[in-house]
Design a protein that fits this description.
Radius of gyration: 18 Å
Number of helices: 10
Structural class: mainly alpha
Number of strands: 0
Length: 211
């Protein structure tokens, strides 16, 4: 296992990376504004699953392949950005559904639970920046003298996923609370849903423009 000093350094680096506004954080806020607290938290859980899966793939060597291949990196980036943009467009088109769901349309809410989790997983899996973060940083916190390097990287990645889950959940709750305040007037909720959609479209565009 990593040494105590390596763990401290890893935790500090992870906290900084998680809190810097990026795809996962902006996606979480956008989902909370668009679909509400429950679905946003499911999306957060899905995103954490996707991120942790990335870490496990890095641990077995896939991350190194992606980091070394411009084509692989580009494909993942384009796929993830296009999906986020599509989600934003859908949020704008169906902004009234959020108000209807909040008003007590149980069937609509129930139908969206599994979908919200899948959305989060896909966004987490298609974030190439996180893959490169794992490729660049995880090896620095591995105690090579202890052996089992792959297992150590897998543990570090899993801890990172758990930290991201906790942090993003807090952000989702804060954003959802603001959404409920606006929802006191239905027209505000429609506008807020559209705002969340625009945020996700902007996020996807920024992902496309990033190098």
């Amino acid at each position: 296992m990593p040494t105590s000093s390596q763990w401290v350094a890893f935790l500090v680096a992870s906290i900084l990376f998680i809190q810097v506004p990026g795809p996962s954080l902006l996606f979480t806020i956008g989902r909370a504004l668009t679909v509400g607290r429950r679905e946003a938290l499911l999306s957060v859980a899905g995103n954490a699953i996707g991120v942790t899966t990335q870490a496990l793939l890095v641990a077995v060597g896939l991350g190194a392949v992606v980091a070394a291949s411009v084509t692989a990196y580009t494909v993942i980036k384009l796929a993830g950005a296009a999906y986020v943009i599509w989600l934003g467009i859908q949020a704008i088109r169906h902004r009234r559904e959020a108000r209807e769901a909040m008003a007590g349309h149980g069937a609509l809410v129930t139908a969206g639970r599994g979908h919200a989790l899948r959305v989060g997983v896909l966004v987490g899996l298609t974030n190439p920046k996180t893959i490169l973060f794992f490729v660049a940083f995880l090896p620095q916190f591995v105690n090579t003298g202890a052996g089992h390097v792959d297992a150590q990287m897998a543990v570090l990645g899993t801890v990172f996923g758990a930290m991201a889950l906790c942090s993003d959940s807090v952000w989702a709750l804060l954003a959802a609370r603001a959404r409920e305040w606006f929802a006191r007037k239905p027209a505000r909720l429609d506008k807020l849903g559209a705002t969340g959609g625009v945020m996700m479209v902007g996020l996807g565009a920024a992902m496309l423009a990033s190098e």
